[in-house]
Amino acid sequence: MTQSYDIIIVGGGAAGFFTAINAAEAQPKLKIAILERGSEVLSKVRVSGGGRCNVTHACFDPRELVKHYPRGEKELRGPFHSFACGDTIEWFERHGVALKTEEDGRMFPVTDSSQTIIDCFLSATSKYKIDVRTGHSVQSLFKNEKGWKIDTTKGSFSTTSLVMASGSNPKMWEMLHELGHTIVAPVPSLFTFNIKDARIKELPGISALATVTIPGTKLAAEGPLLITHWGLSGPAILKLSAWGARILEEKKYNFEIRVNWLHDQDREDVLTTFAALRTENGKKQVMSRSPFGLVSRLWESLCSAAGIGKETRWGDLSAKQADALAAQLTESRFQVTGKSTFKEEFVTAGGVSLKEVDFRTMESRIVPGLYFAGEVLDIDAITGGFNFQNAWTGGWLAAKAITLATEATNPL
User: Fold this and answer.
1) Phi-psi region for residue 72, left (φ > 0), alpha (ψ -120 to 50) or beta?
2) Are 370 and 179 in contact (CB under 8 A)?
3) Per-residue pLDDT tens for 132-191?
4) What's the predicted TM-score (pTM) here?
5) What number is the average pLDDT over the span 60-65?
6) Largest CB tally within 10 Å, which of 27, 66, 303, 388?
């Protein structure tokens, strides 16, 4: 027996729940179902931000906000003028969830618990009698003149409006391709770099504000750089991995990076500093303290790599040693030999081609009555709450468009 709904949302994640709740709030009488293939809903929300849920970012200018999206920058300009970070904050506050801003702009619930967001969503779905069906893996999508028929592992459903909020699910992408959509091949985004190098082998946990570039490309990023047991991580690396997702996949994650551990100083600046130190601190040992504020162990490692011994004094530093140390500080070369997923927050570049979506409504330009929200589209962002913001914005626009269309079709 086929169960009929006004709106069916495939995917029980952030985008799916936000779409369902906003549609129900606009028209409480609508019959809405969320179909989730797993045994749990909102699993990505649960692990986000180390279990705190990085809800959004304190970036309130849509023109600045779009710059955090390697894929989707142009397309999201319009949507962010309709629903952006300020709207997200107001939405959650209206639903009893206060958010706080951290120094780097990331925003979390004041409770520091992702369960607060999950409880908020589950409370709303209960209030509006939205059916949340877990263990419903979609097997087929069929469109006819009346609407949609969706077959799952636990039964069949029909609806006039179908929202795909299925995230990075290859099976769903395949079904959408069969319906006529172009799927941009998925590749990983937001990953850390695997590096085996004596200079950083004994330094896990040490960080520095740095600039990282990839020779032969235009890829460059600045920010905190973190040394790990397996290589390099931190915001600078994650930005590079996002912006370079396709380029680095083509390189099979085997490439060279150059690190400027001093962020905004170049080789000449460093050599000028060294010249002054020779005169002013000639009797002091070079390794005793970094004149640039680097952590001692990192400074000592870079000095060793430049051929400078523990007893070497500034006054005895040769031109060759000075040049070698300046190179280590401002353009250290490291060979990347692979990648690692960043925590549990797996993000994919790829999905439904953005050319085939109307970003005023999030409706398919190929198949009427089909809407999208979240990572199912070829949109992804750097870390900081931006991927969730895309989910909230897409879900809000899809809900608004569907409920307006329903209102026009069935006026009271």
Assistant:
1) left
2) yes
3) 999 999 999 999 999 999 999 999 999 999 999 999 999 999 999 999 999 999 999 999
4) 0.93
5) 98
6) 388
Phi and psi of 325, rounded to 5°? -70, -40
Could you give the angle at the alpha carbon of 373 between the alpha carbons of 358 and 106, nearest 5°? 115
What is the residue-averaged pLDDT of the chain? 96
The tokens of 407 are what?
Answer: 């209102």
Residues near 177 by beta carbon (within 8 Å), at least 6 away in sequence: 183
User: Using CA of residue 184, residue 133, residue 88, residue 357, what is the dihedral sign?
Assistant: positive
DSSP for 282-315 reads TTSBGGG--TT---HHHHHHHHHHTT--TT-BGG
102-107 contacts, C-beta under 8 A, 24 or more apart? 104/384, 105/57, 105/58, 105/59, 105/384, 106/49, 106/54, 106/57, 106/58, 106/384, 106/385, 107/54, 107/55, 107/56, 107/57, 107/58, 107/385
At residue 347, the pLDDT reads 85
pLDDT in tens, 308-340: 999 999 999 999 999 999 999 999 999 999 999
Distance CA 124, CA 118 (A): 10
The one-letter amino acid code at 284 reads K
What whole-number distance in Å separates Cα of residue 335 and Cα of residue 349?
24
Residue (of 10, 13, 35, 32) closest to 21 by Cα position:
32
Burial label for 198, CB within 10 Å (0-12, 13-18, 19+), is exposed
Give me the numbers of helices (H) and strands (E) for the chain, helices first please.
13, 21
Phi and psi, residue 254, nearest 5°: -130, 105
Residue type for 87, please? Answer: D
3-state secondary structure of 88: helix
Q: Which pair of tokens denotes residue 101? A: 């801003």
Q: Tell me, what's the pLDDT at 406? A: 86
Per-residue pLDDT, 343: 63
Q: 226 vs 20, 48, 207, 208, 259, CA distance in Å?
A: 39, 19, 4, 7, 12
DSSP 410: S
